[in-house]
Design a protein that fits this description.
heterodimer; A: alpha/beta; D-Maltodextrin-Binding Protein, domain 2; six-stranded mixed beta sheet; five-stranded mixed beta sheet; B: mainly alpha; Translation Initiation Factor IF3; Ribonucleotide Reductase, subunit A; 3 domains; four-stranded mixed beta sheet; two-stranded antiparallel ribbon; 58% helix; binds fe (ii) ion
Chain lengths: 284, 390
């Protein structure tokens, strides 16, 4: 039997539990999966393109890079699957409730907190949105990065939490937070109820996907995708794993939700059109 | 369409509660309109619906949450952990630590326990005994007057210290055994679990008060004989629930109640009288459960009487080559009953200890008969009981 080799980034120890669990579950359906864990997304993407792994559980930014590298080499990668929770995220620009700031245009000359240098949702996308709204980020506005877990493409929410705390403490004028973290930080008390106000938000974008490499066995990938799509939240064997991975069901992949990120990557020069790293000071 | 009006309540301050309640009232695939004035309501709803497997539809400026299937799916395979009012015949390890009668989500680790069958651990009197046990707890610091005046002669004090030393070692066995049983019992049999837990706490107090009495006027404890410890070791090594309960409680603690009453009667000072009286009261409860449980098992399976008898015989032959009760303890009992070294007093003391042993034998036979043994067999089994009393 052929083994499908999957790459995943170990942004948290639970990643081992998740993929060990999925691996055992798939084996019961006679499907052989093995996995390789990476400490950051860049090497995972490079290995995917070099054919060392068949599929990669990719961040949206890793997807953008994989697509660029594949096309530069005359091949293609494919977004096979995503979680239901990967669709239609929104990032909010929050200010303190008592702030004089009313709209994104008011941010000129102010200090804006973002996530890690490589966070699509908390840095690249919201900054691109601010640029589009006419905020001159190269001018007087000052962007302050909260670099936690660099290389993990924002999977580590520590940067956003630090930014939220700095906003409440008055060290920032605004902070860029995903809708999920805005709610989470409110519930956990990092953002006391009524302490912040949202003055703008990005259009909806998509998050992770399961990316098939250019040389992966298409039939094998198809069978893998079918099995994952058949996972049911009613199955008590798999439900704890779905809870850990943060989904209630797998959905087919789609790539429309990455258009804004492609633009953001171009604007910031994070990668060039062939997927070479261009971000200054980025050391995953 | 159902409407949920959150007014100014945010989802970051409990707004998901009324919303979940409204969603619970509609089938999956159906929408609930959400109204509210919290400024981040739409953002919060988007994030919340995504995480919970619901869908947010905001077409036409109306926020509508379409119920997904995840919340229902989670409880699809859930079962009740039996009936809250009474223990089930078999407790499923898959119920884990869930409260008896709780709705248990499928999945999660099964409990690693040995006793999952009601009739192997149960007695109908367990709930009532537990209630009595809770009500009868006493505080060693206040239940005993540790400052009571004492004019016990040195020789008699030596005897008290030796007996206390022996009691402590027996109490420690009586603590360890139910503690071990407890860890292997399915908590579904809640009243038995609770009763054993209180029994362990009782023994902890007994260890304390007997140690404290021993050291009340002395720096050092008495002696611990190898034979006595060998006897206790055979109890600790008993792995079957009912067998352990039978050997420890019906035979051992039952015999001990007589011993404690004897010590109470012949106590040379108020503290000794107090600690033996208090411990005997607790022990009577331990015996009551052991007898009721063993009778319950013998009632559901009369052939079990043969197994119990075999256990006593096995223990007897394992201990045949040991001394049993150590001589110092036996002599101390005689001396305590005598109250002095005068030969006439010793004669009285000796007779009292003979009476004690006869009384212990009668008590064992009575309990064995209650469990279901014919009188002649009860007498034979009682005679095989360890010379160490416990
Ligand atoms: Fe005791
Ligand atoms: Fe006891």
């Amino acid at each position: 039997m052929t083994t499908l080799l999957l790459g995943a980034v170990a942004y948290d120890p639970k990643v081992v539990t998740i993929w060990e669990g999925f691996r055992a579950w798939l084996r019961r359906s006679d499907f052989d999966l093995d996995f390789v864990l990476y400490s950051h997304y860049e090497r995972q993407v490079e290995d995917l393109l070099d054919g060392r792994i068949d599929v990669a559980w990719n961040s949206p930014l890793a997807w953008v890079r994989a697509r660029r590298m594949a096309e530069a080499r005359g091949g293609a990668v494919r977004a096979v699957l995503m979680r239901d929770t990967d669709r239609d995220l929104v990032t909010a620009v929050a200010v303190r409730a008592d702030s004089d700031l009313q709209s994104l245009a008011d941010l000129a000359g102010r200090t804006i907190g973002v996530g890690a240098i490589d966070s699509p949702q908390a840095t690249l996308l919201p900054l691109s949105h601010l640029r589009a709204a006419g905020v001159d980020l190269d001018g007087p506005a000052h962007v302050r990065r909260f670099d936690v877990g660099v290389g993990l493409h924002g999977d580590h929410i520590g940067g956003e939490r630090d930014a939220a705390a700095a906003l409440v403490a008055g060290r920032l004028d605004a902070a860029c937070l995903t809708d999920g973290n805005l709610l989470l930080f409110g519930q956990e008390g990092t953002l006391p109820a009524g302490s912040v106000r949202v003055i703008g938000q990005t259009p909806a974008f998509d998050h992770c996907n399961m990316t098939a490499g250019p040389r992966a066995d298409a039939a094998l990938v198809e069978r893998f995708a079918d099995l994952l799509l058949a996972m049911s939240y009613a199955d008590e064997q798999v439900r704890p794993l779905l809870d850990l991975e943060g989904l209630t069901r797998w959905l087919p992949g789609r790539t429309e939700g990455y258009a804004a990120l492609e633009r953001a990557v171009d604007e910031s020069g994070f990668y060039d059109s062939e997927g070479r790293i261009g971000a200054r000071g980025y050391r995953p | 369409m159902t409407t949920c009006d959150l007014e100014d309540l945010g989802l970051d301050e409990g707004g998901h509660l009324p919303l979940s309640r409204a969603l619970a009232g509609v089938p999956a695939g159906t929408g609930v309109a959400v109204r509210g004035s919290h400024p981040a309501l739409a953002l919060h709803l988007g994030a919340w619906c995504r995480a919970k497997g619901h869908r947010l539809d905001s077409t036409g400026g109306v926020l509508r949450v379409v119920r997904g299937t995840a919340d229902g799916d989670r409880w699809a395979g859930a079962v009740r952990a039996g009936d809250a009012a009474r223990p089930a015949e078999h407790a499923a390890p898959a119920w884990g630590l869930a409260a008896r009668g709780a709705l248990v989500e499928a999945g999660g680790p099964p409990l690693s326990v040995d006793w999952v069958d009601r009739d192997l651990v149960w007695a109908d009197v367990a709930p009532r005994l537990y209630a009595n046990a809770s009500a009868a707890q006493w505080d060693p610091a206040t239940a005993v007057d540790w400052t009571a005046r004492s004019d016990v002669p040195p020789d008699i004090e030596d005897a008290v210290v030796q007996v206390m030393t022996y009691l402590v070692e027996n109490e420690q066995a009586a603590l360890v055994i139910p503690a071990r049983l407890l860890s292997r019992l399915h908590p579904h049999f809640r009243e038995v679990m609770q009763l054993l837990a209180v029994q362990v706490a009782d023994e902890a107090r007994h260890v304390e008060v007997f140690t404290r009495r021993a050291l009340l006027h002395r720096e050092a404890l008495g002696r611990s004989g190898a034979g006595g410890r060998a006897s206790l070791q055979t109890l600790v090594g008993e792995h079957d629930f009912t067998m352990a309960s039978f050997l420890l409680s019906v035979l051992g603690e039952g015999t001990f109640v007589d011993l404690l009453r004897f010590l109470n009667l012949h106590a040379p000072d108020a503290v000794t009288a107090d600690v033996t009286r208090l411990a005997a009261r607790d022990e009577a409860r331990h015996v009551a459960f052991g007898v009721a449980h063993t009778a319950h098992v013998a009632h559901t399976d009369p052939s079990f009487l043969g197994t119990l008898r075999a256990a006593v015989e096995r223990r007897h032959s394992a201990l045949a080559q040991t001394a049993g009760l150590n001589q110092e303890v036996f002599d101390s009992l005689v001396l305590l009953a005598a109250g002095s070294w005068a030969p006439s007093a010793i004669k009285r003391g000796w007779a009292a200890v003979q009476d004690l042993q006869r009384g212990m034998d009668e008590g064992r036979r009575r309990r064995l008969a209650y469990i279901g043994f014919p009188d002649d067999e009860a007498a034979e089994i009682s005679a095989l009981h360890t010379r160490n009393f416990m």
